[in-house]
Amino acid sequence: MLLITDSSLSHADVDADPKTLDIIDKHAKYTLTTYGRPPVVFTHGKGSYLYDVGHREYLDFTAGIAVNALGHSDPEVARVLFDQAKQVVHLSNLYYNVPAGELAEQLIEATRASGHFQASKIFFSNSGTEANEGAFKFARKVAKLTAKKGQENNKFGIVSFKNGFHGRSMGALSATPNPKYQKPFLPLVPGFAHAPFNDVAAVDQYVTEETCAVVVEPIQGEGGINIATEEFLKKLRSRCDEVGAVLIFDEIQCGLGRTGKLWAHQNYSKDCVPDILTMAKPLANGFPIGAIMITDKVAEKIVIGDHGTTFGGNPLGCAVASSVFRRISTPEFLENVRKNGAHFKEQLESISSPLIKEVRSKGMILGLEFKVDPAPLVALARERGLLIITAANNTVRFVPALNISKAEIDQGINILKEAIVTFEDRTLDVAA
Ligand SMILES: Cc1ncc(COP(=O)(O)O)c(C=O)c1O
Prior knowledge:
It is a single chain. The protein is an alpha/beta fold. The chain has helices at residues 18-30, 63-66, 75-87, 98-113, 128-146, 170-174, 179-182, 203-206, 230-243, 296-299, 315-328, 331-349, 375-382, 406-431; strands spanning 42-46, 49-52, 57-60, 121-125, 157-161, 192-195, 211-216, 219-220, 226-227, 246-250, 276-279, 290-294, 356-362, 365-370, 386-387, 389-391, 395-398. The chain has two domains: 13-73 and 332-431, Aspartate Aminotransferase, domain 1 (Alpha-Beta Complex), CATH 3.90.1150; 77-329, Type I PLP-dependent aspartate aminotransferase-like (Major domain) (Aspartate Aminotransferase, domain 2, 3-Layer(aba) Sandwich), CATH 3.40.640. It contains 14 helices and 17 strands. The two termini are 13 Å apart. InterPro entries: AcOrn/SuccOrn_fam, Aminotrans_3, Aminotrans_3_PPA_site, Class-III_PLP-dep_AT, PyrdxlP-dep_Trfase, PyrdxlP-dep_Trfase_major, PyrdxlP-dep_Trfase_small. GO terms for molecular function: identical protein binding; N2-acetyl-L-ornithine:2-oxoglutarate 5-aminotransferase activity; pyridoxal phosphate binding.
């Protein structure tokens, strides 16, 4: 694919403010390059918009990869951050603090009230990866204490799924079967196996008496917006019960209102519940925090000293999360996510292009699958003022702020349509 920069475009890379290149040079000189980034430097945002060094405005359909659920620089988030920072920022887990207790109560009570997952305890972490690491440790401890006699040291297998994504630390990476992420760091943690997603018939073969945990995203985000079937989640639940394994739902990307329900698994019947649920991304609208929510059955096996963190559960993050959670968990807010998510989906379905294969979505997590690699579309959209990201399987992923308006969705879709026309011209030209 040719990279053609067109200075007639509203947000052309070639017209970037000169300060942009200075800042990028500084990054290149002093920070480790593990990300390929476009030549744009953002300075601030407001709602669903971001602004670059040269004051150019971009509509943001990425929301920090499903993080800024309430948009950028939300005034209430800023107020809570400031007020809590004036009280106390950090205490360590040597002592109790007020916001962590309040947040834990809110999360557990709202989850129980759904009538689905009957969670009973929370452990706070700093990120999604760390939440998953903790979940794997808890599962291994449960297995050691509940395995059949003589099997205590054999029951350590963790099953995850093809196209799943659970993070980049060694345990989470071991559950993320993407050769691009795993290969440079082999060997990984022993005991991980990767089963085909949504393949009910394969479950018994992978989930055995040696399995201590199964980890699954009810909707795979990074993997291309792949939605688990009811039958598949039910089978995982029943197989985990059969072999005495813990079922972990990684709702780091698809949970916390993203689908228009508090948790993605609430889109399924009440049989589709985990023993452990991990969350992170939008919990504090961008302030780093994660959490592991567990049932009594798991909690009773974990004792003082089993797990720890310096920053997890700090009063600042928990105060912000508590305020964010109060807002995103109301029925009105979730109803709006469902309504605007349906509108977004209709708009995507209205795009006619020979390159498009299908639209997949649940609420405000949407995927537009192409017949070819859509990577060039990201730059084509950005140079027209729209931020989008890709996912696996030739899919463009849309995970905007949950409070994005219909007018903003329409504005973005119009830009996307223009970008797709150019993408088509270039792709079909190359193919011809
Ligand atoms: C489903 C899922 N799990 C885990 C993670 C890792 O979370 P973090 O980047 O906060 O460590 C991500 C991040 O994209 C994710 O989407």
